[in-house]
Amino acid sequence: MPPARPSSAFSPRRRQLLLGTSASLALGACSHAVTPGPLRPPGLRLIGEATLPHRLRFRETTVGGLSGLDYDPAQDLWVAVSDDPRGARFYTLRLPLSAERLGTPELLDVTRLAAPPQPDAEAIRWRPGAGTLLWSTEGDVRHGTAPSLHESARDGRLLRSFTLPPHFAVDPAGRRGPRHNLGLEGLALTSDGGQAWVAMENALLQDGPEPTVGQPGGPCRFTLFDLASGRALGQRAYIPEPIPQAPRVPGVFADNGVSEVLMLDAGRMLVLERAYAVGMGNTLRLFRVDLASGDDTLAVDTLVPGRFRPLAKTLVADLSAWLGSGLSRLDNTESLAWGPVLPATADRPAQRTLVLLSDDNFNPGQVTQFVAFALTEPL
Hints:
2 helices, Neuraminidase, four-stranded antiparallel beta sheet, mainly beta, about 375 residues
């Protein structure tokens, strides 16, 4: 991930914002992102938000950098993975959630993940049938470590690492492959639990540029893996939007990219795009994509504009629409997960819940924020 929006704790690129002259602007305005005409769909009802104290100590760890979240309905437990490069780990917690309220998260346990060097864990998914956890990392491109996808036991033992397509390899010359901190950011299990999609935050170097204020970015590759064999089955290309607002001071940092993906049903996916501009703060937009709408790019080494068909996308919601009416701020949100189903009542059918979680980057100017929505109609 890029320097101005520190998504992995203590990354050198990330420190540029915190230590640079623009830091005071960024920290002072991170909760005031405004997008003209924000979309608040009728299908989403904000339940509430909850936060954890900054640098909370729990069982000899500092809670922070929470970059992935998932829910185990059988045990009514949540798992949240930390991207702290000093030690890959996930937390087990309870999240009191009703139709009217999101309560204070309750940490229950922390589990160390056996991992390759420089893991930078960014997403986690619980496999109900197998009782295991899938998790993805951005690696450390500057030190030659490529993004990766792993499966671990509930006790943190590494069970296997998946073989990624060759275009994800790190190029020592820096001409192709993943950009540093812009690797595998999103992870989604298919409805039947037999496959998993992993999503890049931004384009590979050979595929196109990062987004700018006026131009969309190059295509992010979304790759589908078969969980039984571990093989990559297919791939789609997703075009991230232009950066929605310019930074307050011309020429300083701004970015946009994919921060999480989540299956909506068997053929459609939700994609969370998170943008940041120094002095303006974060913008969070939720898109829906039809996975049958794009070409398979798995065998394509370089994605040239006009030679492939990207995924068709539709804006579902702009979270700035809830600012000041139940949502206190927008932050560095990197997680998207389905929560428990709210039981039906005399005046309301059963409703699915959707929970988002932000990564505070161990930065006192940011927050670990849980936000819960109820789906009142299909998205």
